[in-house]
Amino acid sequence: MRRSSRARSLVSLVALLLVARAPGRAASPQVSAARSAPVRLKVLSLRFLTFAPFAIARDEGYFRAQGLDVELVPLVSSADATPSLIRGDLDVVAGVLKIADFNAIARGATLRFVADKDHFEPGACVGSAFVARPGFLDGKGGDGPARLRGARVATTPLHFMEYALETLLGRKGLTLDDLKLARLPGSMVAEAFGAGSLDLGQLSEPDLSRVLRSGEAVLWKGVREVLPGAQHSVVAFGPRLLGKDRDVGRRFLVAYLQGVRQYNLGKTERNLDLLAAETGVDRELLRAACWPSIRGDGKIDVASVLDFQKWAVRRGALDEVVPAERFWDPSFAVDASRILGPPAR
After folding, report:
1. Which of 47, 82, 144, 282 is deepest in the core (most CB within 10 A)?
2. Residues 282, 301 share a domain
């Protein structure tokens, strides 16, 4: 009887091993069920298209499969994000490259970029652009120096898009000093065009498609033409995930990149459902919009980040360029890609 029991146990074990080794069954990135209660993380999330992978990872259960209980936290002002990360009030933040982040790192803050959140892919559709009020660029002068000099332009001082604007102007022999700059949020650009109080501005999707389709503005220049391949926004970790909970950080990146790779499948019905619910943007506008480019392996364009800092130094907003090893930790993305395999595209 005992021998029969041992035999049955041996058969069961062999069967389990055969199933585990069966061809075509990829190793799952799911965390062992033996883990204790899910680890809670607070992650900055805003209702923009570039935050879509976070919502996808939450709604599709990718965070849960990694043993994470992720709370997506909205902030009234993105300026509060980095201080909240450094204090530990948030575990993960994501957003546009900011000079304040490099100043914080230079002063010793425990803050590192760990993944791409969007960049200006050369040859991709135009998801962020400089726009003009209808009629402003018409005529013989086009967008030459004579026409642009003295133009009324909406910008945010020392913002990444001001960097892009100054780069564009430099190719035309102009500087920001040749323009009349106005502080104006993107949500008011179209209204200012209609009132005749603004000549040029910058918009990103889905506002860009909405305004261009309505005829309230015309396309001047896509940012990807000005800064091809440039890094625009990143995912960043703070003290907790860079320190004692690095394994939690790796698991977060696995789930995040799963979300990115689903996002990169494009305008599937499932993705449209998820993004419409998360952003509040109409499905048809989402279908028409150009979705920002996000790398499925999480890598960032380090050279362009250094170029952005050099501009900040020239503007006197940063004392010196922070070297890559102090702002970029690629290990989380490398480990996540090793687990998930290479992205399909």
Report:
1. 82
2. yes
As a whole number of angstroms, the distance between CA 308 and CA 177 comes to 19
- On whether residue 24 sits in a domain, the answer given is no
Boundary-marking domain end, from 206, 226, 246 = 226
Instruction: Look at residue 104 and tell me if it is in a domain.
Output: yes
Question: What's the structural domain count of the chain?
Answer: 2
Strands across the sheet containing 200-204: 180-182, 152-154, 200-204, 128-132, 218-222
Domain residue limits at 196? 128-226
Q: What is the mean pLDDT of residues 306-317?
A: 98
* All residues at 6 or more sequence positions from 30 whose CB lies less than 8 Å from its CB, including other chains: 65, 66
Token pair in block for residue 12: 């069961």
Distance in angstroms (rounded) separating the CA atoms of residues 191 and 280:
21
pTM: 0.88
Q: Which residues pair with 70 in a beta bridge?
A: 41
236 plus 103 within the same structural domain: yes
All residues at 6 or more sequence positions from 157 whose CB lies less than 8 Å from its CB, including other chains: 181, 183
Contact status, residue 46 vs residue 74, Cβ threshold 8 Å: yes
Strand arrangement, sheet containing 92-96: 68-73, 39-44, 92-96, 231-237, 112-119
Q: Which residue has the higher pLDDT, 19 or 200?
A: 200
Taking the C-alpha atoms of residue 159 and residue 342, their distance in angstroms, rounded to an integer, is 33
Domain membership flag for residue 331: yes
Same domain, 245 and 102: yes
Distance between alpha carbon 90 and the CA centroid of its chain, in Å?
17
**Residues 80, 93 share a domain:** yes
- Among the ranges given (5-9, 77-81, 286-290), the one the predictor scored with the smallest mean pLDDT: 5-9
Given this model, what pLDDT does residue 122 score? 94
Q: Is pLDDT of 9 > 80?
A: no
Task: Examine the fold and report which residue of 198, 226, 254 is the final residue of a domain before the chain moves on.
Answer: 226
| Cβ-contact 249, 241 below 8 angstroms | yes
Torsion (CA) 108, 111, 116, 117 in degrees, nearest 10: -120
Q: What distance in Å separates the CA atoms of residue 84 and residue 241, rounded to the nearest whole number? A: 14
Question: 35: pLDDT confidence band, cut at 50, 70 and 90?
Answer: low
